[in-house]
């Protein structure tokens, strides 16, 4: 199972069985407990990581100590590649949201893979382009959207990756505290809680600890626009 998840990562895009097995053998298993920090923004680092199980949050801290979450990554997703393509310190802090299993690959091992397999380079460019698009959208939303709209959008994004369809709706086990949800949306916890309570009172969702059940996907999608 973990091998299947690992091979969904862009790093394995288009590799034949032999090349994929060689690449997998050169990776190292890394486990983190919930809350453990893998690396801090500003650290030197020469590894990239693929999440096999669990969730990682990538965040930045302002000089006065406030935190902003850039992304929540789950199984099959990769991070730590920016300091390879643009050598320099880590651009964000990586922290385990749950217990996490990952595989790491040294940056020095990546160059030969990219040279021998252009499909992998294409897949990594595709991932970077997707992140730039998403970042542009987030910046636009910070300027143009209100907090409830941003909360709705963040919930839909989490649902697209962690959601599971059931009879009563889409169960999204995001594993985030309300504080972390607020950091992801870029608003205060109070404002985000108010938006969530409003959605719940309209019957669009049900709140549970570290998870949400989306009952009316259509209305939430319209609110996210
Ligand atoms: P690196 O800078 O090596 O370490 C932090 C990692 O966080 C970075 O590589 C990217 O892989 C990841 N990262 C940084 N910014 C974003 C973002 N906006 N969206 C998703 N991942 C990001």
TrEMBL record:
> SMART domains, alphabetically?
cNMP, HTH_CRP
Q: Ion transport as a keyword?
A: no
Where does the Cyclic nucleotide-binding domain lie?
Answer: 11-131
What Pfam families does UniProt report for this protein, alphabetically? Answer: cNMP_binding, HTH_Crp_2
Alphabetically sorted, this entry's keywords are: DNA-binding, Transcription, Transcription regulation
- Which residues are in the HTH crp-type domain? 145-218
Q: Does the keyword Transcription apply?
A: yes
* Xref: PANTHER family: CRP FAMILY TRANSCRIPTIONAL REGULATORY PROTEIN, HTH-TYPE TRANSCRIPTIONAL REGULATOR ARCR
**What protein am I looking at?**
Crp/Fnr family transcriptional regulator
**Can you name the source organism?**
Aeromicrobium alkaliterrae
């Amino acid at each position: 199972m973990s091998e299947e998840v690992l091979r969904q990562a862009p790093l394995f895009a288009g590799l034949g069985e032999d090349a994929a097995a060689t690449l997998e053998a050169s990776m190292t298993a890394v486990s983190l407990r919930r809350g453990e920090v893998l690396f801090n923004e500003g650290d030197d680092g020469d590894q990239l990581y693929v999440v096999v199980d669990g969730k990682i949050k990538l965040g930045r801290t302002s000089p006065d100590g406030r935190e902003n979450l850039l992304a929540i990554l789950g199984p099959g997703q990769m991070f730590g590649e920016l300091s390879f393509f643009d050598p320099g310190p880590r651009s964000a802090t990586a922290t385990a949201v749950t217990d996490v299993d990952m595989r790491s690959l040294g940056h020095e091992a990546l160059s030969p893979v990219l040279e021998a397999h252009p499909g992998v380079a294409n897949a990594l460019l595709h991932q970077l382009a997707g992140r730039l698009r998403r970042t542009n959208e987030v910046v636009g939303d910070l300027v143009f959207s209100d907090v409830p709209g941003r909360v709705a959008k963040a919930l839909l994004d989490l649902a697209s990756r962690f959601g599971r369809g059931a009879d009563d709706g889409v169960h999204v086990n995001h594993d985030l505290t309300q504080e972390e949800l607020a950091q992801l949306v870029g608003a205060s916890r109070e404002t985000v809680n108010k938006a969530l309570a409003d959605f719940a009172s309209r019957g669009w969702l049900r709140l549970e600890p570290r998870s949400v059940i989306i009952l009316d996907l259509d209305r939430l999608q319209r609110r996210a626009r």
